[in-house]
Amino acid sequence: MPDSLKAILVDDWEKVTRENRLVPLPSKTPVAQFLADYSASEGAKRREGSAEADILEEVIAGVKEYFNKSIGRILLYRFERPQWSDIHAQLNKGTGDLTGKLPTDIYGVEHLCRLFG
């Protein structure tokens, strides 16, 4: 991971753990949108139906799945867990603004960076 992203992760950690600030949710740039943009950009460089294109698609699907499964377990700081509990309850309720959404539709790239940090 580049040093510039590591510095951003340190700033993120300080804001959440020391200043008790939460990232506003839903994110303006959710993980799903970021990965879709990345897929479109990288997919244009690969021949459709090629092994490279298939691998890109599988990796992105895997990152989404891993993110959705790990957000509540390993990607949040203690201060963020009550916010996750509220969102998780809304996702499971099946009514309201979050109906049919996944964590990748709500959380942003700052949380995605934690996955790789």
From TrEMBL:
GO cellular component, as recorded: NuA4 histone acetyltransferase complex; Rpd3S complex
Location in the cell: Nucleus
Record's keyword terms, sorted: Chromatin regulator, Nucleus, Transcription, Transcription regulation
MRG domain segment(s): 1-116
Any one of the GO BP annotations: regulation of DNA-templated transcription
Entry superkingdom: Eukaryota
Keyword field contains Transcription regulation: yes
Main location: nucleus
Coiled coil: none
Name of the protein described by the UniProt record: MRG domain-containing protein
